[in-house]
Write a structure and sequence with these properties.
The protein contains 22 helices and 16 strands. It has about 675 residues and is an alpha/beta fold.
């Protein structure tokens, strides 16, 4: 960190540093699980003080750069771009809104001015910190009101407090006041501490109360409490900070209990007083005070009090100093270390090799499939065409084998939303297949299904319904019930809903759900459509259940896609953004993603996630789909991203290759 606390990368980097410190505290606490509560409390308070000191330490301490391989450098500022594609159900021209935002704050020199996301992020952080500080201030004000509502304690209590304070080594004056009602004993104050005791406490209970509250003062718990509150305000977004504060609060009470028992009070008597106080007195809602016997964790405290095996040794000044020095050393090390990418040779200009024209059908189709998977439309189209030509040359232009090659070519074009080319291929294949295999062959499904989609794109809905039903007959006639069957049922359900037949649409969607496996890519959308059909029939509770199931299927699909995604190749010339090492690329020209016709017909929505490398020339290359959606939307996302242009990322002022993640959200309006 170089002092740019306002940037997103700095916030994340500071959170990562805090995680290291809190993780070390957790390991230390685990190793010391049989030690006294005082020692374990010191561990957590030292960790909270350390994370509170991190921003200042990162600015003041000299940086110690540690070269590591670029793949190991944390990337808090990694570029993350999002594009949103929204389209009406039946527009002639899709209405698309695309927006790109960087998570890194720095704008490369020469880039056009654009609204920054740094200000909203900083404002969000400030709002959270401000709310927690306001809460602490209100607690302090409430403590003052309670103080002025109390009366000075009777001389018996004040005299006993002076005696006990001297025994505990407290040199500061302690003011003891008495609450008018049944208030829980509390303590607050740094330089002039105040102890509130309940009215009418008998002498035995009064001694217990004062000893416990004075134990907090002797230990300096109020200052440690303020440190924890400040750390929670600064890192309000970090769950480990809240866990550390909760553990510190629990151990604070345990340590005070141990100090009380060290004065000679019997464990059973003390535990009885704690339980009695928790039952009869109400703890005030003062976030800046230390209450004696809040009900939370009381059972664990009582068990610890009564357990003779628990170690209760208090820390001496030497122990506190040693713990503070260890925490200081850890904070200094974490604040000063700055990982940087190891020097690597400059990237070489690489030219993609153009594969030779295949000579066999199998070789051609395998090569075409590889090009298709790499989203290289032009080469894949050329090689699929070559494969069909090889089939025609070998088996004849009227052969089933040639027709099958045309069907493969047509399905490829349909996936890429190239309907004119797909139409030509399917119309050539269909009569050959009918003549050779008969009108009921399941191999007619692909051409018939495409013709139904084509008819719906032309808004010829009666013909589209007729063709969808014919496609369904072909699947059922062959005894096939699978995802393709589910797609046809889903399309028919959409047509039925549009015609006002909500009940018929619901029946078709029920069949579609039964046909599609849960892990099929179309399942979440089918269940979403089912939920919408239920709502049209007024079955809201059933619709909510269906919507929840659709969300679960979508999340499961995302997890499977993330688990199966191929990692970015280990290439030392590819950098990550973050830590001030590499500046982020910025988007300067975009192309709007479009909706595919098949996705629109089937009401499919979702998110495509892509991993790309932004080259020094500002072009996104090495595009990989890490979370596919299907139905032509993956291809639409890739086609749009390839037209984007970036101000390249830089390292030491020189353009470099930078890894980025892009999300494209497709939504039907």
């Amino acid at each position: 960190m170089t002092g740019n606390w306002n940037s997103a990368s700095s916030l994340l980097e500071m959170a990562l540093r805090a995680t290291v410190i809190l993780g070390a505290a957790g390991l230390a606490s685990l190793a010391l699980r049989r030690a006294s509560a005082s020692l374990r409390h010191l561990v957590w308070v030292s960790a909270l003080a350390g994370v509170l000191a991190l921003p200042l330490a990162s600015r003041l301490l000299p940086l110690w750069t540690v070269p590591v391989w670029v793949d190991l450098v944390p990337a808090p500022g990694a570029v993350l771009l999002r594009a949103n594609a929204a389209v009406n159900e039946r527009p002639a021209t899709p209405v698309v809104e695309a927006a790109a935002a960087r998570t890194a704050a720095a704008v490369p020199v020469g880039a056009p001015a654009r609204p920054s996301r740094t200000f909203p992020l900083a404002a969000l952080w400030l709002a959270g910190a401000g709310l927690l500080l306001l809460r602490a201030a209100l607690g302090w004000a409430a403590a003052l009101r309670l103080r002025w509502a109390c009366r000075p304690a009777r001389e018996e209590a004040a005299s006993l407090a002076r005696v006990l304070a001297a025994e505990l080594g407290i040199a500061r004056p302690v003011r003891v006041v008495e609450a008018a009602g049944a208030a829980m004993p509390v303590t607050w104050g740094l330089f002039r501490p105040v102890v509130v005791i309940p009215a009418g406490a008998n002498p035995a209970r009064l001694r217990v109360i004062l000893t416990h509250e004075l134990a907090h003062i002797a230990r300096g718990d109020y200052f440690q409490h303020l440190v924890g509150q400040a750390a929670c305000a600064l890192y309000w977004f970090h769950p480990l900070v809240w866990l550390a504060q909760a553990e510190a609060l629990r151990l604070r009470e345990r340590a005070a209990d141990d100090l009380v028992l060290a004065t000679g009070l019997g464990a059973s008597e003390y535990a009885g007083h704690l339980v009695g106080l928790a039952r009869t007195l109400a703890a005030p809602r003062l976030c800046g005070s230390l209450a004696m016997a809040r009900p939370s964790h009381l059972e664990r405290r009582v068990r610890a009090i009564l357990d003779p095996r628990v170690r209760r040794a208090a820390l001496n000044r030497a122990g506190v100093a040693a713990g503070a020095l260890a925490a200081l050393a850890l904070v200094a090390g974490v604040a000063a270390v700055r990982p940087v990418a190891a020097e690597v040779p400059p990237p070489q200009v690489r030219e993609a090799a153009i594969p030779a024209a295949p000579d066999t059908i199998a070789e051609a189709e395998a090569q075409a499939a590889r090009q298709d998977a790499a989203f290289d439309f032009d080469r894949a189209a050329a090689v699929y065409t070559r494969a069909a030509e090889l089939r025609a040359a070998r088996f004849g232009p009227q052969s089933v084998e040639y027709a099958r090659g045309l069907v493969t070519l047509g399905a490829f074009y349909r996936t890429w939303d190239r309907y004119p080319e797909a139409r030509d291929a399917f119309l050539k294949a269909l009569p050959i297949l009918v003549q050779a295999l008969g009108p009921n062959s399941p191999e007619l499904f692909e051409p018939v299904y495409f013709m139904a989609l084509d008819a719906q794109a032309a808004r010829d809905e009666p013909r589209a319904e007729q063709l969808f039903r014919r496609a369904l007959e072909l699947r059922r006639g062959a005894g096939l019930t699978d995802s393709k069957t589910a797609l046809v049922l889903n399309a028919l359900a959409a047509l039925a809903a549009k015609a006002g037949d909500a009940a018929g649409s619901l029946r078709l969607l029920e069949e579609a759900q039964a046909a599609a496996a849960d892990d099929a890519p179309e399942s979440p959308a089918i269940v979403d459509n089912y939920a919408a059909a239920l709502r049209k029939l007024g079955r809201e509770s059933d619709a909510d259940v269906a919507a929840a199931r659709a969300n679960q299927l979508r999340q499961s699909a995302a997890r499977r896609a993330s688990a199966n995604a191929a990692p970015m190749p280990a290439d030392p010339s590819i950098y990550r953004v973050g830590g001030g090492v590499v500046t982020a690329p910025s988007l300067i020209q975009k192309a709007e993603p479009e909706y595919s016709q098949e996705a629109r017909v089937n009401h499919f929505q979702g998110t495509v996630v892509l991993a790309v490398v932004i080259e020094p020339d500002g072009v996104a290359r090495d595009i990989r789909v890490t979370r596919p959606l299907g139905f032509g939307l993956d291809q639409k996302a890739v086609e749009a991203i390839r037209q984007w242009r970036f101000q390249p990322g830089t390292r030491n002022g020189q353009p470099v290759r930078v890894a980025a993640t892009i999300e494209v959200n497709f939504r039907l309006l």
